[in-house]
Amino acid sequence: MITIDEYVSSDMQELQNLIAELHDAMMVFEPEIMMPGDVARKEYIPYLIEQTKEKNGKICFAKQKGKAIGLMAVRTEKDSDEAVQYAWVSDLVVISKERSKGIGAKLLAYADVYAQSNGLSYLKIGVLAVNKGARKLYFKTGFRNYADILIKKLEKGS
Predict the structure, then answer these.
(1) Which of 20-24, 45-49, 81-85, 123-127 has the lowest mean pLDDT?
(2) Could you tell me which InterPro entries the record lists for this protein (predicted)?
(3) DSSP label at residue 155
């Protein structure tokens, strides 16, 4: 049975391990841009915790038999050029051997509950364009394309 549990400070090791796994997986797609997992566990996690607290958010684990096998953070955001606040889902990861078993969908369902309980009508999530597995999950759970961010690598001296 999978449970969704909110982060407490004693979960720090599991948070570090899952963030490292997420960043290492993203490095497969974008090795020049993404922060390696060992760096993310030191440099990114304090930012994630601060943003989550500051913006009325939650960090949640999917746990099986007490072991964290997935992670998601969700917080309230508002872009300056948009009329509505929304729930921003970040750092969604499921350990590789447990993927495609509905765990990511359970974490996203928790994000739905978070959004509704905070009076929000929208969820947003970012995804690397080449991450077909994540994109498939997001579309399956009701997300649609909203905006694209394009990137261009500049040649040195240009």
Answers:
(1) 81-85
(2) Acyl_CoA_acyltransferase (IPR016181), GNAT_dom (IPR000182), N-term/lysine_N-AcTrnsfr (IPR051556)
(3) P
**What is the C-alpha to C-alpha distance for residues 144 and 118, in angstroms, rounded to an integer?**
22
CATH of the domain at 73: 3.40.630.30
Instruction: Give the domain extent around 132.
Output: 2-140
Q: Cα angle vertex 19, ends 13, 20, to 5°?
A: 90
Question: Cβ distance 74 to 89 under 8 Å?
Answer: yes
**pTM > 0.90: yes or no:** yes
Is residue 152 in some structural domain?
no
Scan for tokens 């509905």, then name that residue.
Answer: 102
> Taking 90 as the threshold, does the pLDDT of residue 158 lie above it?
no
Q: What is the mean pLDDT of the chain?
A: 95
Establish if 55 belongs to a structural domain.
yes
Q: How far apart are CA 101 and CA 108, in angstroms?
A: 13
Domain count along the chain: 1
CA atoms within 13 A on the CB side of 157: 0
